[in-house]
Amino acid sequence: MRKYFIPTLLLCCLLAFTNSLRAQEVGTWKAYMSYHEPTWVEKGGDRIYVLASNDLYAYNEKDQSIHTFDKINGLTDTGISHIGWNNSAARLVVIYESGYIDLVDGKDNVVSISDYYNHSMTADKTINSIYNYGKLCYLATGFGIVCLNVAQEEIANTYNLGFSVDYCHIDGGYIYAESKRNGKYRALLTDNLLDKGNWKRMGSYTARNANPDPELMEKAKTLSPGGPKYNHFGFMRFANGKLYTVGGGYGLAELRRPATLQVLDGDEWQVYEDDIAAKTNHQYIDLMCVDVDPNNPSRVFAGGRTGLYEFNNGNFVQEYNIDNTNGCLQAAGTVAADNKDYVIVSGLKFDTSGDLWVFNGISKGSSLSQFTKDGKWVSHHNKAFMDDDNTSLNNGGCLTFDTSGNLWVANNHYNTPALVVFQPSTQGINRYTRFVNEDNAEVNGGGGVRCTAEDKDGNIWAGLNGGPVYLRPSDLSTDPNSVLFQQYKVPRNDGSNLADYLLTNIDITCMAVDGGNRKWFGTGGNGVYLISADLNTQVHHFLSSNSGLVSDNIESLAINPTTGEVYIGTDKGLCSYLSDASEPVQTMDKETTYAYPNPVRPDYRGIITITGLSYNADVKIVTSSGTLVAEGTSQGGMFTWDGNNLNGKRVASGIYMVEAATEDGSSGVVCKIAVIN
Q1: For residue 190, is pLDDT > 60?
Q2: Which of 31, 251, 396, 666 is the most exposed place for a label (fewest CB within 10 A)?
Q3: Residue 677: exposure state from Cβ atoms within 10 A (0-12, 13-18, ≥19)
């Protein structure tokens, strides 16, 4: 066997450099769950298990460590409804709202029981409460009682009583089923409990004292497992190396979500001041949009159902509403003119100079406004921003500036689905309401324009409930009434010469374009799609059932351009996927172009990433003697290598040269990777 000697100095330098890089590997998932509000606690061995914000963590009383649980590190699902420690089996029973059941032992090993979730029945399967007795756990459900054998990891019996059981318990050899609707029932444990005739009504329902251990709860309130305050991420924006998020909540319905601005910096969360209603004397809920001042990263604005809010370093500075905006922000036309609970700011975006553009929805006399960097409010109200009933667009948002300086406004409302473009320098405006495909079939299907984005070719995309469509840059000067939005046809490549429309009849709720010009589409109920730059290939279709995605209902997307990490906001919380595409650099050099992990250690068999590349860079990986082992083209500014040669075999230990050249071959750069087997 040929052995390679890796110079000690080089190896030490590589080790030091690698320590500065993120540990997350391309293709891996992370969850960012809230553990803010404890609702139940259980003592199990040396641990205190805490159910908080429908998520789970454990506190070790011996070493005072905290371990958080999520779908990425072993749990089956999200949205936990009940937990209970089974002392005889030494396992924590975890019940999800979905019907999944997990059993967690003291070493964090998880056994998933899916039989109850998978069982098809017309009765109400909601699990109302749990009761541990010996090695059994009794589940009070919407139709009766389910007996779970925790030690044997299986459902032992199902007692269909024909009515909803709120809780059950065992006393004096009897099992009791307590129902608010039907009263108190019991049966002897020695009887055939499958026979409904053995269950006798004993009187009225007895209310249960269902309170957690007070001492354990007080202990739980002192713990700080980290994470965001809420699992609401209706809108997100990535800026200055940070992820800025708000909960959303206002649109076709009022979800009344807490209006809290949460910022992720690395792995640390900053929760902005949110006790604002006490200062403004009116509601503070349903934030829908957020942006950061390009001239002052500490200055952040958020808009929602109740106005526009300014923050500095996380502290509340000022509210903007009907009192202080020169008529640019008005109350909704459906309420009293002085009602500050409905001064709807559904979209906002800073331009490059530092002026803030704001959209005021459902107002009779205002719509698009400009808040200049010197503190002046200027109205750009126009009939193109109005609904048929003479109020501004109901849910005009997703404000986006394209590379030409045009401002796009998407109206996500079935009443007036529209995509409006405004040119600030000329005051020119176009309104697009016609969304049909090449076969002249309606694409939108009665929904609104959910989102909009510009890709790297200058195409303007619109997400509809019937799929994505796009407008070519050359069509911007065309009469909007004659413009046909394109719904791309994907060739089947099966010899039939047929094609299918891209993601036809899929509800596109949000989208983002990565450094490789690939399109990420979030959907309502269909998870996340990643489509290639040429639109011909479905690279990924992530679902909660086949990935670390925490829910299939996607509300928002944002991408870290440097790392390629894709943040996915869902109706059950936030997760992320480390993709293989980052933003390209303009000039490749030894400072920007590097590989990680580096060195590649003997026990590592994952993806090796080369980053800091130009767009569509040509990449070759060769041995020190010049033998080619791998080659390809970068995705944006990133190239990945599996550590194998052209024959699919693991390369030998040694130093490998990464030779990267620009798309036109005009310049290039070289970096090194040390492989240790």
Answers
A1: yes
A2: 666
A3: middle
